[in-house]
Amino acid sequence: MSNPHSHAVAATSTHDAHEGHDPNDFAHPLPVWMLLAVFVALTVLTIITVAQASFDLGSLDVLVTMVIATVKATLVMLFFMHLAFDKPFNLIIFLSSFVFVALFIIFTLTDSQMTSYAFEPVVDEPVTTTATP
Amino acid sequence: MATTDAILPEAHDDHDHGHDHAHPSFLAHHFDTPEQQFDSGKLGMWLFLVTEILFFSGMFCAYAIFRNLRPDVFEGCSQFLNTKLGAINTGVLLFSSLTMAWAVRSAQIEDHKTCTGMLAATLSCAMVFLGVKSIEYSHKWDLGLLPPFAYSYDPNAPHHEGISTYLVYMCLPFAIGLIGLVIWFLVSKALGNRFAADVAKPMIVVFAFFFVGVGLGTILESGESKHADVAHAMAAREGAHVDAVHGAVDPSTDSAASAGVHAEANTVSETPVLERLAKDEANTGIRDDLAARERQTTVAGTTVVANETEIAGAIDSVKTEVNTKSRAGVFFAIYYCMTGIHAIHILAGVGVLTWLLVRSVRKDFNRQYFGPVDYVGLYWHIVDLIWIYLFPLLYLIR
After folding, report:
1. Does A51 touch chain B (CB under 8 A)?
2. Is the C-alpha dihedral spanning B222, B174, B166, B343 positive or negative?
3. Which residues are registered as beta bridge partners of A126?
4. Is A119 on the interface with B (CB under 8 A)?
5. Contact state of B57 with A127 under an 8 Å Cβ cutoff
6. A chain contacts of residue B260, beta-carbon cutoff 8 Å
7. Which among B321, B329, B258, B326 has a CA at the least distance from the CA of B287?
8. Higher model confidence: residue B268 or residue B164?
């Protein structure tokens, strides 16, 4: 944008776009080993989530799965979505959405404590044709 | 895109079209540099992803409200979701994220062949995902596990045998697409259109992978897991029932539903093999046999006490109440809404990835112009990100 090299980039890119590495290039290709490492980490975390589902952790259950999911999401965001190397403005925009999601969900949930039973119809018959009376 | 295309001819003819600097063909008229173009596009993409997050948060909110309201319903209904299929789909999506990130990398280093291959791999993973999903959906629709307006699950209904009609309907567009692509490939090969053939070839593989997904889903869903899923859900309820009643017999066994349930409950110690066989609902003979045995013990024993009706009945009614339109139905409404809209996002991703594949075959991307691959990659990763949360929230409730 306000890059002092910007005109130079445009000039060089048109003429020798297919030559060797240009120091003005803005592309930041991730090394293959990093991509593979992130994928392996994600797979291991998936196996851990599936495995922990067979243990009874009680009320911690949801918390543990959500923490693992968030670690996975963070890995995807930082590396696959390139946020670790990007302009911080993109990260700020993205994270700001979660602030509003949190506001939305927290307020709706606290509010729904008052009304949630009203969401269900009063008359409710079991579907089974041969159900017990 | 329109602006980039519009500028193509003049940019090819003359680099110096009224600007004080050279304008490469891929650089839109209103941008100074490729980097500015890339950053603007990326900013726009991130804003779009923010709206996506807010969009999905509505459904996550509905999920949170109803799970708070009826945690037992979510626990019980989650048994109907096949964890194996969910885990496979998670792995497939994670792998597709890897290939997508790799495609971005190869676009940046101008490795067109790898880029096309990686895009095709990403598309294939998307197709496997959809194939597995279609198995999951058709299986549930056959059982009547549907949103409240159509919820009709009956645990005693005979099992659907053979290939589901819903599955046929879902496979049909992909089968037609596959046949169309094969024809297109052959025609373009015959006409000597190399570009069309180069596009059609990976797309044939991509569409074929839908049926790999269907096959994978069928293998994992069929056999033990097909019935085990349902049987497991039933067994969970039965187990709770046995614990609560302590072996006492519910006299209201005139209905086939409780007959089946109590047959298993009472004969656990006597006929474990029969009981296990009877879990398969196809074995109607053995089920009937167990029901008869159970009735015999009820009549012969001294457990027919009128007062117990209330205790057993109460617990039983609590257990069966899960299976109603406003309980299980709402769970499945949320399930279909979340996974369905996610699947629509996958379909949209297939659309844009196909567009990328065509452009990658055309060698449109270079290290100054890889924006489209990067933006679609971001979109694809957000779809993966949402699934990362959906999988434990829906499939892994215990």
Report:
1. no
2. positive
3. B324
4. yes
5. no
6. none
7. B258
8. B164
Interchain CB distance below 8 Å, A42 and B391:
no
Q: Which residue has the tokens 């659309």?
A: B351
Phi, psi of B346 (to 5 degrees): -65, -45
d(CA B19, CA B214): 55
Two tokens, residue B366: 């270079």
In angstroms, the separation between the Cα of residue A55 and the nearest Cα of chain B is: 9
CB contact under 8 A, A53 and B398: yes
Mutate to test the interface with A, among B48, B104, B310, B316 (most CBs of A within 10 A): B104
ipTM attached to this prediction: 0.78
Please tell me which of the candidates B42, B64, B377 has its beta carbon nearest to residue A109. B64
Flag if A26 and B35 touch (Cβ within 8 Å). Answer: yes
Please report the number of interchain residue pairs, chain A to chain B, with beta-carbon separation below 8 angstroms. Answer: 234
- Dihedral sign for Cα B126, B127, B132, B134, please: positive
Q: Which two tokens stand for residue A115?
A: 């009304």
Helices (H), chain B: 2-13, 34-69, 71-78, 83-108, 112-143, 165-191, 194-221, 224-245, 256-266, 272-279, 284-300, 308-320, 328-361, 371-395
Contact with chain B for residue A37, Cβ under 8 A: no
Distance from CA of A113 to the nearest CA of B (A): 8
What are the residues facing B366 on neighbouring strands?
Answer: B369
Residue A99: per-residue pLDDT? 95
| pLDDT tens digits for range B274-310 | 555 556 555 666 666 666 666 665 555 544 444 444 4
CA distance between the termini of chain A = 72
Contact B162, B155 (CB under 8 A): no
* pTM listed for this prediction: 0.75
B35/A9 Cβ within 8 A? yes
- C-alpha of A79 from chain center: 11
Plot region of B249 (φ>0 → left; ψ -120 to 50 → alpha; else → beta): beta
- CA distances B298 to B19, B215, B284, B302, B356, Å, are 95, 46, 21, 7, 69
Separation CA B18–CA B392 (nearest Å): 57
